Amino acid sequence: MTEFRPSRFEILPTIIKNLLIINVLFFLAQKTFTGPAALFSFEDSLALHAWQSPLFRPWQLITHMFLHGDFGHIFGNMFALWMFGAVLENLWGSKRFLIFYIICGLGAALIHLLFLSYEFIPLMRDYENIVRLHATGGIEFNRAMIQFISEYKLEFNEQASLLDALRTADLDSGLSNQVFRILSAYYTNTVNTATLGASGAVFGVLAAFIYLFPNTYIYIYFLFPVKAKWIGLLYFGYEFFFALQNSAGDNVARWAHIGGAIVGLLIVITWNKTNKKSFY
Asked: 14-117+195-274: what fold?
């Protein structure tokens, strides 16, 4: 029976060590050079943006993997990367593990962007309709904005009074323009939302570990032994459930997690079948 107990970072393979260092340095830079006065925005330039966003750049498919939102975010990702990734790097070697890690991160990003684009289709269509009607104004313009607010469950100050005013026959172009600016700001913020973190790549690492060592015991809180395969099923089931729910206010990139796990699993299954000793 195989057992696996996390140690106190006693074993740090080359790639794991360097990934930890790079992620920590990026995190410190994020927190140091931030705010309105900053000359460079890490999130605008290096975090991953939707293809529809004017902030999207191709290099973000890689650079987003080295940015994190807060201490809990980076700690959780880096701890999991070390805990499971160190085993894989010792098993495969540094070069093979690095290629695996990057491919998982890229795959997670691409799958996330595909689902994000699909989710943006109705939003972009409805907003473009409002923009088109804005040129003429009138009751149809107001009705389109009311429908948009209802469809996307928007909330803002004095919402009830604004909606009541929009419904009246006594049209007020100033009021309509005020609501239009609010909706435009919502649309811009939504399309420009940044995705950051190494979670997609780390989920690929976790999936590979579970596939290769399904009966290894992982000690939850260092106390409760649970086989890796059961943790994997529960964790991925949890992510898939909430990805399908697509709940408002959920700012976790669930499909990136699932995508990274799927890519990692496919890679390790392929490697396991070919049983090659090295990967070039």
From this structure: Rhomboid-like fold (1.20.1540)
